Structure formats: C-alpha cells, structure tokens
Amino acid sequence: xxxxxxxxxxxxxxxxxxxxxxxxxxxxxxxxxxxxxxxxxxxxxxxxxxxxxxxxxxxxxxxxxxxxxxxxxxxxxxxxxxxxxxxxxxxxxxxxxxxxxxxxxxxxxxxxxxxxxxxxxxxxxxxxxxxxxxxxxxxxxxxxxxxxxxxxxxxxxxxxxxxxxxxxxxx
Length: 171
Hints:
Order of helices and strands: HEEHHHEEEEHEEE
Helix content: 25-40%
Radius of gyration: 16 Å
Strand order of the largest sheet: 3-4-5-6-9-8-7
Strand content: 25-35%
Oligomer: single chain
Largest sheet: 7 strands, mixed
Shape: globular
C-alpha cells in the first residue's frame, strides 16, 4: 500500500483538461477521476484485452463521467500519436493501436479548437463486426443513447459522437 508521499507523481488523470501548447498538471477537481499507476495499468489492460462491445460500453461510460483528456484517452489506445491543428478543429490520431485482437487500426479524435474537448471519436476497424449485435449490446447498457447502423455504427450522446467505421473509409 502507498502512503500519500508515495502517490505524488503516480496519479494520472483521464479528465485533466489540456491547455493550448502545454499539459496542465494543476490540482485535480474532486469530480474528476484520478488513477494511481496500478489503476492506470489496469485500465490500459482493459483497453487492450476487452472485446469490442465491452470497450464501446466503457467508452460511453468514460464520456458520461466527464470530458476525457484527449492525450490520456489516446494513451489508453496506443502509441504513435499525431496532432494537427486547424482554425476550426484539432485532429488527434492514434496510428498504432494496441489491441489484443488487432481489430482497431487507428483512432481519430476531433477536438474543439478552444477547449480541446473531444467532440467526435472514430474507431477505424480492420473488419467491421456484426453491427446490429453491437447496437443491441450497447442499448442493453444505455437505453437512452442514439445508436444508428448503416455502413458504420454511430453512437450519439449529449456531448459526443462515437463512430465505428471500416479502416478503408478515413474521416
């Protein structure tokens, strides 16, 4: 077990908001979720090992708890990240996703240019799964979400949009 002194520097915050040009390491609001290194490693393991339906349910849960920091959320998916700034939006991409099933080829997040809040997130898939089964699984956990299935699976909630699409279709 860690003492308070041991935890200094070991906490990571999924919801810590980024400031333009710098990483904000200021005190964390009690409404945000902070993890010790062991908890962070467990969350990374979940992102690596969980089946896709479980990962999508977890992502909805993360967004419902608050606006996750795009850098930290990207780190849960993998490495080789890239950020492109535009006056109307910021695009943050994880090009090397670390998943046991190798199902997700990359993750693209569209951020608000001022607040850096994730507005949309795209999971680009090697092979699209059975979309109607995924839709049912998500709706079992969140009956109030808008989930559409066509060539893509689109999940729309109050503050975000999550799209599952084929890797050949780039956003």
